[in-house]
Specification:
This is Ketosynthase chain-length factor. The termini are close together. The chain is an alpha/beta fold and about 425 residues long. It has two domains: about 240 residues, Thiolase/Chalcone synthase (Peroxisomal Thiolase, Chain A, domain 1, 3-Layer(aba) Sandwich), CATH 3.40.47; about 140 residues, Peroxisomal Thiolase, Chain A, domain 1, CATH 3.40.47. Helices cover about 35% and strands about 20% of the residues. It is built from twelve helices and 15 strands. The strands form three sheets. An eleven-stranded mixed sheet has the order 5-4-6-7-1-8-15-14-9-10-12, sandwiched between helices.
């Protein structure tokens, strides 16, 4: 790991502060908190099943990863319940878990020394649909005034800031990759001197409005068997399934964490984002460039990476492009590759954030979680997919990938 340490020293000499993850909180279809989620992941328990939040009978896709039922008033103050969409409630719950996990006394810190950055790809669609139904059925007088912000992409940043009484630098990122982008943005704030940033991403679109929007893209799997519907890198790949949830983090400057005796999960050592070239240009997609730039930012060579958490689209063309990018950087079967999102579905912006949480837990516990249900991997001579069972091994460096419509992000996490 000499290159990594050298890069860290160089960053310190330039006055750039290191950002470490000291707390994480998750909400996922296969586990309501980080403990439940990690246990499910290690045992290959998926949370994908027939949709229950609305009747899916009229739609070609009837499977999704829903967060288990919970009593919202046990987790969210009653006054917030009528103001918030499912995505915001889950974000508040996950952020509460991250703060508790970090054992950080936010009340004892100046509020302007704590920032908040979140990602969100779809906004509060469930809340929006409900209020729009009132508009058409009953008239404008019956529409909640809270609709003015409950649908908005920035709502989670605002609600988290209010809930925890912090008012440092903030931000919101949007799009499929924004789960990584928000964490990367938090790292930038820490590099510039902010001691603590609360960050991450949670998304939810478990309503007819969300489904018809996604169905229009034509990439969702219509397979009825929940164990055969979402199969990234498999010869039977037929598309993806949606899920809801994500992860939130407490990110601190390394010295701040050390001074209070915190035990970090790892360092956010590198991050990069790229755009794909114009369709039809014949140029290579931008994912490989994002990987190489993130590794360079971290001062890590390909041979030092212990695992890649793949974007895993479940669409044959996109899977081939991702496999090609990974192989070009690392070589054939040179690094373990996994896609735990086969247990949850794709969570929009919440997906890459949840992958960062999973990678952090992998580093702490020395185990790579499996990709489930994939039985016939395409070009198995190209990717070393971790299939079926977890793989126990030292995980010192993890790479997390995410792709959206024309965008690619990559993040390197290293053990500390």
């Amino acid at each position: 790991m000499t290159a990594t340490f050298a890069e860290r020293d160089a960053r310190a000499e330039r006055g750039l502060q290191r950002a470490v993850i000291t707390g994480l909180g998750t909400v996922a279809p296969n586990g309501f908190d980080a403990g439940e989620y990690w246990d499910a992941v290690l045992h290959g328990r998926g949370g994908i099943d027939r949709i229950t939040r609305f009747d899916p009978a009229r739609y070609p896709v009837r499977l999704a990863g829903e967060v288990p039922e919970y009593d919202v008033r046990e987790h969210v103050p009653g006054r917030l319940v009528p103001q918030t969409d499912q995505a915001t409630r889950l974000a508040l719950i996950a952020m509460g878990g991250a703060v508790g996990d970090s054992a950080l006394d936010l009340a004892g810190m100046p509020g302007d020394q704590v920032g908040v950055v979140t990602g969100m790809a779809v906004g509060g669609l469930e809340y929006s649909q409900r209020e729009l139904e009132k508009l058409w059925r009953l008239g404008g007088d019956h529409v909640s005034a809270y609709l003015s912000f409950s649908w908005f992409y920035a709502v989670n940043t605002g609600q988290i800031s209010i809930r925890h009484g912090v008012y440092g630098p903030g931000g919101v990122l949007t799009g499929q990759t924004s789960g990584l982008d928000a964490i990367g943005h938090a790292r930038r704030y820490v590099a510039e001197g902010l001691p603590v940033v609360m960050c991450g991403a949670v998304d939810s679109a478990m309503c007819p409005l969300g489904f018809v929007i996604e169905l229009a893209a034509g990439r969702m799997s219509t397979v009825a068997d929940r164990t055969r519907a979402y199969l990234p890198f498999d010869s039977a790949a037929s598309g993806y399934l949606l899920g809801e949830g994500g992860a939130m983090f407490t990110v601190e400057e390394a010295g701040h964490a050390r001074d209070r005796g915190a035990r970090p999960y790892g360092e956010i050592a590198g991050y990069a984002t790229t755009f794909d070239p114009r369709p039809g240009s014949g140029r290579e997609p931008g994912l490989r460039r994002a990987i190489e730039a993130a590794l360079a930012d971290a001062g890590v060579t390909p041979s030092e990476v212990d695992v890649v958490f793949a974007d895993a689209a479940g669409v044959a063309e996109l899977d081939r492009a991702e496999a090609a990018a990974i192989t070009r950087v690392f070589g054939p079967r040179a690094v373990p590759v996994t896609a735990p999102k086969t247990m949850t579905g794709r969570l929009y912006a919440g997906g890459p954030a949840l992958d960062v949480a999973t990678a952090s837990l992998s580093m702490r516990h020395g185990v790579i979680p499996p990709t489930i249900n994939v039985t016939d991997p395409v070009r198995s001579d190209r990717l070393d997919l971790v299939l079926g069972e977890p793989r126990e091994t030292t995980v010192s460096t993890a790479l997390v990938l995410s792709r959206g419509e024309g965008a690619n992000s990559a993040m390197v996490l290293t053990a500390v």
